[in-house]
Structures are given as structure tokens and as C-alpha cells.
Specification:
By secondary structure, the chain is of the alpha+beta class. It is 32% helix and 26% strand. It has four helices and seven strands. Helix 1 runs antiparallel to helix 2. The longest helix has 15 residues. The chain is globular, with a radius of gyration of 16 Å.
Length: 157
């Protein structure tokens, strides 16, 4: 049974759990990344990246476990990760909608080698507007730049 996931703001004391959700999600969806790189990124997530964004999360209403989270900065979704145990339950869609509607996010980057994520974002109304050969650390993991397509206002005749 699907239910509406409440959006909340995680606390600094949740950073360890957010990092665990990040790692579980990345290991489930980024099979192109070597383990050594995931370990390096994990350290950056907990020590720098979480602090650099406005964070939102969804918690399981039964066990209060963080099921997924997003981070937004400067109109850009910098991170959106769902724990593999909670995929397909509408959490990513809810977090993304909140980021667009409430945090004014209009852009994001996605790994070109992550076709599931690309398909998800395109289905949510994003379009590819560019590409770069390397990720944010200059490594050879191409990124696609996406922008949210605002629907034109309907006018009555």
C-alpha cells in the first residue's frame, strides 16, 4: 500500500544515517563506480556535501527510519537518494516535487551511466540541456545537465 510520505528537515544528528542511505542507494544504482571511489565520495558526503545544501527527507512512519533524502542549493537539486528498501514507493517523486515547488529547484545533474535515474527525471518533467565528460571531481563519469520544463499557463478564451 502506498501512502503519502511526509517531508521533514533532518537534523545534524541524522547525517550518519543520511550517509548510510546515500551509500546504500549508490551501491544499488551506480554499478559503474569502483568501490574505492564510493569510499572517497562517502567521506565527502558526510564531511562536506550534506552541510552545503538545504536538506529534506522522508522517514518511515512505522520505524522512523530515513527512507530517502534530497539536498538543494542555488535552485539545483544537488542530491536525491532513496534507500533500496524503499524504492518504488513515491518517495523520490515526493522529494523532487517538494524541491521544485517549495525550494525553487529547476536544475540537476545525473550520471549518464545511471539510466534508471535518467528515466525517472525525464518522466518527472525534466529535459536534458547539456552534458559534460566528467563528474564534479573531474573523474571520467559523464554527467547530463537537466532542467525542469515549466508547463505554460493555460489561458481561457
Amino acid at each position: 500500500m502506498k501512502h503519502k510520505w511526509a517531508i521533514q528537515t533532518p537534523r545534524i544528528t541524522d547525517f550518519q544515517t543520511l550517509t548510510e542511505v546515500w551509500e546504500a542507494s549508490v551501491r544499488a544504482t551506480h554499478d559503474f563506480l569502483p568501490d574505492s571511489y564510493i569510499v572517497l565520495l562517502r567521506q565527502l558526503v558526510i564531511s562536506q556535501y550534506l552541510d552545503a545544501v538545504m536538506l529534506i527527507c522522508c522517514k518511515d512512519p512505522i520505524n522512523k527510519r530515513i527512507a530517502g533524502f534530497a539536498g538543494v542549493a542555488g535552485g539545483k537539486v544537488e542530491m536525491l537518494f532513496i534507500h533500496p528498501d524503499y524504492r518504488g514507493q513515491g518517495i523520490g517523486k515526493g522529494l523532487l516535487r517538494f524541491a521544485i515547488d517549495e525550494l525553487n529547484a529547476e536544475c540537476l545533474d545525473v550520471n549518464e551511466q545511471n539510466p534508471q535515474a535518467i528515466g525517472f527525471y525525464l518522466k518527472q518533467g525534466f529535459e536534458v540541456i547539456g552534458r559534460c565528460e566528467t563528474d564534479g571531481l573531474g573523474q571520467p563519469y559523464p554527467l547530463l545537465h537537466l532542467r525542469y520544463k515549466r508547463q505554460p499557463c493555460l489561458t481561457r478564451a
